[in-house]
Amino acid sequence: MVIAIGLEGSANKLGIGIIKDGQVLSNPRVTYITPPGEGFLPSETARHHQAEIINLLEKSIKEAKVRPEEIDVICYTKGPGMGAPLVSVAVVARTIAQLWKKPIVGVNHCIGHIEMGRHITGAKDPTVLYVSGGNTQIIAYSQKRYRIFGETIDIAVGNCLDRFARILKLSNDPSPGYNIEQLAKRGKKLLALPYVVKGMDVSFSGLLSFIEEKAETLKREYTPEDLCFSLQEAVFAMLVETTERAMAHTGSQEVLIVGGVGCNERLQEMMNRMCEERQAKLFATDERFCIDNGAMIAQAGSEMYSAGMVTSPWEETFCTQRYRTDEVEVVWRND
Amino acid sequence: MTSHPHEPAQLRVVIPFPSKEQALIAHNSLRVDREPKRSQVQKTLFVEKHCLIVELVGPDARSLRLSSNTFFDHLTLVQKTIDKFSLDKFGSSEPRTEDFDGIEAKKPCLN
User: Is the ipTM of this complex over 0.85?
Assistant: First the structure.
């Protein structure tokens, strides 16, 4: 029986979660939300996390009704992500690991998403579509590694959506992607946008440049609702195509969507349509686990800890902005 | 702090802790992260008695300012974490007396 605490802060969400034997005891989160038209920068995001982390840690422990002595392992996000926010969280993780005299595990953020998705949905060996503001990857497990089958060759799909929301000056509360989704539901006119799929990979920066440059002229003919609708249809279709290509390659009958963009119901709807055509099954989690959270770090960290993968020696408890999903040896899986 | 046109700028800060144990905890939490790639500041951290000592060497005062500001942000975070989550203090509903920390912190670190 393992009780793990996970600390996550690689982007603008700060989350601390506690898991006991696979059961989520607490998973509070706070989000650094910037004014409409603005994105979040590393130093101010780090300052937000620093200001919130002590209270959030206390809240997480109180909600879980555990004592620090009962926690077996301290898990934190090693990367990938933004440097300053990552370090701010790691500093606290290192401190409680010493205060409570517990082992520490540095977790890959992407693997946190995957392991939580598998755990919550019960998907056995899915083709994973990991889509967020910082990452866009199509992943399949093979021989102790989460292999990246396809990915964005420039920006993440969530980054494309977020930056488009800035052009429209949409609110970032609760997230720009959520507000794009709500507007898109009322869109009527479809604008054909650049559709860029390159084999197994996707590209969004050309599409973003197009819509950024033409925004002013487009606004005369299309409403913000139409533009949001058109953007989603284009980017999501690209993701469905590349996910299907990976499934065809591996013969997979399961799809798991993880990451903040995975909350989007239109994406889920389109993916489900493709899955039904292939008699495959779609798995997705709700916003508690799609969006960055601490429990997912605790879940992956707990698997690692049980398999003997503690971060050691102490110098290894650093953070890194670049951390490929396939760099981690998935020791805890036996398939 | 010294800053000379042809010499690097240096900053040395001595931070007393209530105990050597706490100084060592802070040292461990703070020594792992390297300075950001673009920073030209060299940071050295070590513990003497119950004090954490940080030495920064950089090309100018501005670089030291940036580096030390970040360092102090993280140091504050470590201190708050120790204050709140030490096993003997955590969960206590009694008001803690601050005198102990204050008296200990006034002890000189260097002879």
Answer: yes
